[in-house]
């Protein structure tokens, strides 16, 4: 069965920033936040202070993964340009989203450069209070904040552009499932992806169902199921709590609006990449055709649009062009 990891991070250089401060690499995959929090960011054997494209390709090859979607986040620090270089070098293996702090003075210049010059056709907003923008900004709304509105108005000129959002769990100011529904209605030609299945809790499925029901009318909203093992605190394959979460998502949204991913490298420090890439096959949630959609076809349809691939391949960075 063909597989696309719909949520993968490369780490050219550790540059994490969130409410815990800055992240510093310590070697052997270990890192420390400014507040003293230690985390194992990179699994053993994947890299000491980085997780490069070549290491990712080796992991993918060992586990039968055909392609991957490269996303950015505050945990590792934005790796926008390295992701661009990787897609240009390995166009048959990767597609990428970029990230930007919408409150930066040059936010719109950054957005325009990545879309118009570098050919990106996906953007990732990690707005969670626990790990993203809400950890170091005052509370804001995706659907009503002027700085975000400027970006969405710009992206509306690119039909099929993918907007990927990680908004954290319900305890955080950043938890905004209703904002995704509002944006999907407002921008029907954009595709919206919610990371981590809206941070589920198998003991509180009504909360998850409430979010999913808000999205159900809008076919331009999908969700990926990366890192739900971490969120549920599960290390027992094949993750029975996660099975309940995904079964509910299928019931409400259908199999064509769900896709698989891992959120590696960090998630692969809790469960092996092999287990993360095979657990759905050990369940009866999806039939064979549905499983093929979840593991490959849906991410292919959303992220690997032919014109989006072509946009990145045709791009030429004017910064390098004018200085070489």
> What do we call the CATH topology?
TIM Barrel
Major β-sheet profile: 5 strands, parallel
Within the largest sheet, what's the order of strands? 8-9-10-11-12
Indicate the mean pLDDT.
97
What is the number of independent domains?
1
Oligomeric state of the chains in view:
single chain
Give a structural overview.
There is one protein chain. This protein has 324 residues and is of the alpha/beta class. The protein has a single domain (4-308), classed as TIM Barrel, CATH 3.20.20.140. Helix content is 36%, strand content 15%. The chain contains twelve helices and twelve strands. The chain has helices spanning 53-62, 80-89, 107-117, 146-155, 177-186, 205-215, 228-232, 240-253, 273-278, 288-303, 306-314, 318-322; strands spanning 4-8, 17-18, 21-27, 30-33, 38-40, 67-70, 94-96, 122-126, 162-166, 191-194, 221-224, 258-259. The strands form three sheets. It has a five-stranded parallel β-sheet with strand order 8-9-10-11-12, sandwiched between helices. Strands 2-3-4-5 form a four-stranded antiparallel β-sheet, with no helix packed on it. It has a three-stranded parallel β-sheet with strand order 1-6-7, with helices on both faces. Helix 5 (177-186) packs parallel to helix 6 and helix 6 (205-215) packs parallel to helix 8 (240-253). The termini are far apart. The relative contact order is 0.14. The model has no long low-confidence stretch (mean pLDDT 97). InterPro entries: ACMSD, Amidohydro-rel, Metal_Hydrolase. It holds the Pfam family Amidohydro_2. Keywords: Hydrolase, Lyase.
